[in-house]
Design goal:
The protein is an alpha/beta fold. The protein folds into 2 domains: 140 residues; 309 residues, LCP protein (Aminopeptidase, 3-Layer(aba) Sandwich), CATH 3.40.630.190. Helices cover 41% and strands 17% of the residues. It is built from 10 helices and 18 strands. An 8-stranded mixed β-sheet has the order 1-14-9-2-3-4-15-18, sandwiched between helices. Strands 5-8 form a two-stranded antiparallel ribbon. A two-stranded antiparallel sheet has the order 6-7. Strand 6 and strand 7 form a beta hairpin. Helix 1 runs antiparallel to helix 2. The radius of gyration is 38 Å and the shape is elongated. The relative contact order is 0.12. It comes from Prauserella shujinwangii. It holds the Pfam family LytR_cpsA_psr.
Length: 496
C-alpha cells in the first residue's frame, strides 16, 4: 500500500490507481457477500412469517370447527340433503308423499333462509358474523399463498442476478484434483499459515489444438509434459512475491503416483516409483497430483493452489492484454522453431510469436543453448506479462480485463483457483507491483550428468526454501534495515 505522505510522483499516482482499482473489485466482492447475507436473512424472516401465518390459520380452522353447532333433530340440513333425525332411526319416506320442494337460494348468492313465498329472510347476527369471518379467512389464505409465490420468484431472480456472473466465471475453470495439503513432506506447517503458494505448470499438451495453431497434434505429440514449472510464493504479510523455476531436466526420484489421463483429467492405476528420472516425467505420468507431490518433497512448502496452463490459454492471455513487451539484444533464431524474433530492442510479442519465445530451448544467440536460457526468457516474459496485467491499460479497461479473465479461466486447469480465491489474493496484494516480484531458479550444479539430467544442490536448495518458509532474507540477500525504502527487485538463476 502506498504511503499517502510520500512525494506524489507519477509512479505513486500509478500505484494508487492500481490500489483503487483492486479496492473497487474487492468492494464489489464484499458487497455481493453482504447482499447475499441480507437475502438469506430476509428469506429466513419470510419463512418465519409464513410459518406463523400457517399456524394461525390452523388455529382458526380448529376453533371454527369446535364452535360450529352440531346437527339437531329437525334441523334443515341444507339444500339437496336428506332429512335425518339424529335421535331416531332413519324413517322411510312413504311412496305417496309429495315431492320435496326445490331448494331456493338468495339473490345475492349469500347463505341465508328463504321463506315459503320465495322472499329472503334475514340471517341472525351470529350467522352473519360467522360468514363474514369465514370470508375474511379465505381472503387471508389466498393472499398468503400469492405472497409466498411472489416472494419465491423475487428471491430466485435476485439470487440469480447477484451470483450469476460469479457462477459463470467459476464454471469456466476446469477443476482437477491436484493438492495434498496434509502431506508428510510439508515442513514447519505452522510457519506457513497464511502463505499462498501457487504451483504453475505450463503443459505442452496438444489436446484441442487446431492445425493453424502451429503447436502440433496429439497424433504427433501424444500425452502431456510440463514445459514450464514454477512455484510462486506470496508470504502472509503480502510484502512481495518470489517465483522459483525448476528445469524440466532436473533429476529426481519420482514417487509412486496415480496415472493421469490428460484427455479426461481422470486418475487410474498406481505407477511404481522410479529413480534418476527427469522432473517433467512426473507430469507426463501422474499429472498435477504427482507434480505437487514432487515439488512438496523438494521444497517442503505447502502448495495450496495448482494452476495448469496450456498453449491456447497462454496465447489468449497475451493477446487479451494487447501483447507483451520484451527486450531483444539480437535476432532470435531457434534450431527447431526457426526465426522467432527478427527485430531488436523492445519488441511487442503476441500469439504464436510469444508462445515460441517461451518455448524455444536451442537459441543460437543464447550462450547456454539450453533450458537455463529458456527459463531466463520465461522469467523475463512472466515479469513483463505481470506488468502488462497490472497496468492501467488493463486494470482500468473492463473489456481487456474481462478478456484476460476469460482466457485465463477457459484455458487453465487445477485446484483452488476460483473467483473467490483470486479476489481474496488480489485484495491482500494491493499495492504490490510487478517490481516486488523476485525471480529465481532452483540451485543446480549447472552441468548435465551422464544421464543428461540437471543435478540439484541439496544444501543450497534447503537454505532457499527454509528462508521462504520462515519469511527470512533469501540466500545472498541483505537483511532489511529501518533505512531501507522501496520494493526489492531481483532476478537470480542457478549457474549456467
Amino acid at each position: 500500500m502506498t504511503d499517502q505522505l510520500e512525494p506524489v510522483d507519477d509512479a505513486t499516482k500509478y500505484r494508487r490507481k492500481i490500489d483503487e482499482s483492486l479496492a473497487r473489485f474487492s468492494a464489489a466482492h464484499d458487497e455481493l457477500e453482504a447482499e447475499e447475507q441480507q437475502r438469506r436473512q430476509r428469506r429466513e424472516r419470510l419463512a418465519a412469517r409464513l410459518e406463523q401465518t400457517r399456524t394461525k390459520l390452523q388455529r382458526v380452522v380448529a376453533a371454527t370447527s369446535q364452535r360450529l353447532p352440531k346437527p339437531q333433530a329437525g334441523d334443515d340440513p341444507g339444500p339437496g340433503a336428506a332429512a335425518v333425525d339424529v335421535d331416531q332411526p332413519t324413517r322411510q319416506v312413504p311412496a305417496d308423499a309429495p315431492p320435496p320442494r326445490p331448494a331456493l337460494t338468495r339473490r345475492d348468492g349469500a347463505d341465508g333462509a328463504v321463506g315459503e313465498n320465495g322472499e329472503e329472510q334475514a340471517d341472525s347476527p351470529q350467522t352473519r358474523l360467522q360468514e363474514k369471518k369465514r370470508r375474511k379467512e379465505r381472503k387471508a389464505l389466498r393472499a398468503g399463498r400469492i405472497t409466498a409465490v411472489i416472494a419465491a420468484v423475487l428471491v430466485f431472480l435476485a439470487t440469480g442476478t447477484a451470483w450469476g456472473t460469479k457462477t459463470w466465471f467459476n464454471a469456466k475453470f476446469n477443476e482437477i484434483a491436484a493438492l495434498d495439503e496434509n502431506s508428510a513432506s510439508i515442513r514447519d506447517a505452522p510457519a506457513q499459515l497464511g502463505d499462498e503458494n501457487f504451483l504453475i505448470v505450463g503443459s505442452d499438451t496438444r489436446e484441442g489444438a487446431e492445425a493453424e495453431d502451429n503447436v502440433g497434434s496429439t497424433g504427433g505429440v501424444p500425452g502431456a509434459r510440463s514445459d514450464t514449472m514454477m512455484l510462486a510464493h506470496v508470504p502472509k504479510d503480502r510484502s512481495r512475491a518470489v517465483v522459483i523455476s525448476f528445469p524440466r531436466d532436473l533429476e529426481i526420484d519420482r514417487p509412486a503416483c496415480e496415472r493421469w489421463n490428460p484427455e479426461t483429467g481422470d486418475y487410474g492405476e498406481v505407477v511404481e516409483a522410479d529413480e534418476n528420472v527427469k522432473i517433467n516425467t512426473s507430469f507426463a505420468v501422474g499429472g498435477p497430483k504427482c507434480v505437487t507431490k514432487v515439488i512438496q518433497q523438494i521444497s517442503g512448502m505447502k502448495i495450496n493452489h495448482f494452476v495448469g496452463i496450456d498453449f491456447q490459454g497462454f496465447k489468449g492471455m497475451v493477446d487479451a492484454v494487447g501483447g507483451v513487451t520484451v527486450h531483444v539484444e539480437e535476432p532470435m533464431r531457434d534450431a527447431e522453431l526457426g526465426m522467432i524474433v527478427s527485430q531488436t530492442g523492445d519488441v511487442v510479442l503476441r500469439g504464436d510469436q510469444a508462445l515460441n519465445f517461451v518455448r524455444a530451448r536451442k537459441v543460437y544467440s543464447d550462450p547456454t543453448f539450453s533450458d537455463y536460457g529458456r527459463m531466463k526468457r520465461q522469467q523475463e516474459f512472466m515479469s513483463s506479462l505481470l506488468k502488462a496485467t497490472l497496468s492501467r491499460n488493463v486494470l482500468l479497461d473492463m473489456g481487456k480485463l474481462t478478456d484476460f479473465v476469460n482466457a485465463f479461466a477457459a484455458s487453465t486447469f487445477g485446484e483452488n483457483i476460483g473467483v473467490d480465491q483470486m479476489l481474496t489474493l488480489a485484495q491482500s496484494m494491493r499495492g504490490l507491483n510487478a517490481g516486488s516480484v523476485t525471480f529465481l531458479t532452483v540451485p543446480t550444479v549447472g552441468e548435465a550428468n551422464e544421464r543428461g539430467n540437471e543435478v540439484l544442490l541439496d544444501q543450497q536448495t534447503s537454505d532457499l526454501f527454509h528462508a521462504l518458509i520462515n519469511n527470512a532474507p533469501l540466500p545472498g540477500e541483505e537483511p532489511e534495515t529501518p533505512a531501507s525504502t522501496g520494493p526489492k527487485t531481483s532476478q537470480q538463476a542457478a549457474p549456467a
